[in-house]
Amino acid sequence: DGGITQSPKYLFRKEGQNVTLSCEQNLNHDAMYWYRQDPGQGLRLIYYSQIVNDFQKGDIAEGYSVSREKKESFPLTVTSAQKNPTAFYLCASRPTRLNTEAFFGQGTRLTVV
Amino acid sequence: AQSVAQPEDQVNVAEGNPLTVKCTYSVSGNPYLFWYVQYPNRGLQFLLKYITGDNLVKGSYGFEAEFNKSQTSFHLKKPSALVSDSALYFCAVRENTGFQKLVFGTGTRLLVSP
To answer: CA A78, CA A76: separation in Å to the nearest integer?
Structure first.
């Protein structure tokens, strides 16, 4: 069963703690993305990666970090430096052929308590 | 840098009527354009894309979109709306050079009333 799996679906974090969101894909896609979704603001790009061991900052990378040690995995760490981390986080992947669309996971809802 | 505008936060339409969800874009060079739909607390589902060729693109669930280069628009349309079409719709654009960052609009909520 191919696809993108994000875990957990719901995550609660205390203020000051780091937390890592998992994103795994078995689609053999080279490119992977992390987006943050807030009401009324659409999807904003946090980080993206085209190949293993390489990634670039998106528009709102401050307070976040990523790694791309394996093609299948692109975990996102929300650090304590992120001042307003409560949001819905979406991971996506796609082949790097120019005319392909991105495929999305089901998202992780992070709440700071 | 590329950008997408969805000027309507919400579109209301009666079931059976045609619907249009608007999208305009800005990108250097030729754009790759996409529409996605999102149901509550779910990820995004791909509807259709424009890469090149015919300006009218047909996609999933009876949706279509018209690419207009002179107006830099890519409006989503459906001839006859269903209540089940009620959802959040996102337009996205990608450059056809470099890393091809995928940028989304703010989304338009479509509400189809019975």
So the answer is: 6
Q: Is A61 on the interface with B (CB under 8 A)?
A: no
The whole-angstrom separation of Cα A74 and Cα A23 is 5
Confidence bin at A98 (pLDDT 50/70/90)? low
Nearest CB among A45, A56, A101 relative to B34 is that of: A101
A90 contacts B99? CB cut-off 8 A: no
- Nearest CA to A30 out of A90, A74, A94, A92 is that of A94
Whether residue B72 is predicted with pLDDT greater than 60 in this model: the reply is yes
Q: Which residue from A42, A48, A102 is facing B106, i.e. has the nearest CB?
A: A42
Using the Cβ of A102 and the Cβ atoms of chain B, whether some distance falls under 8 Å is answered with yes
pLDDT recorded at residue B41 = 82
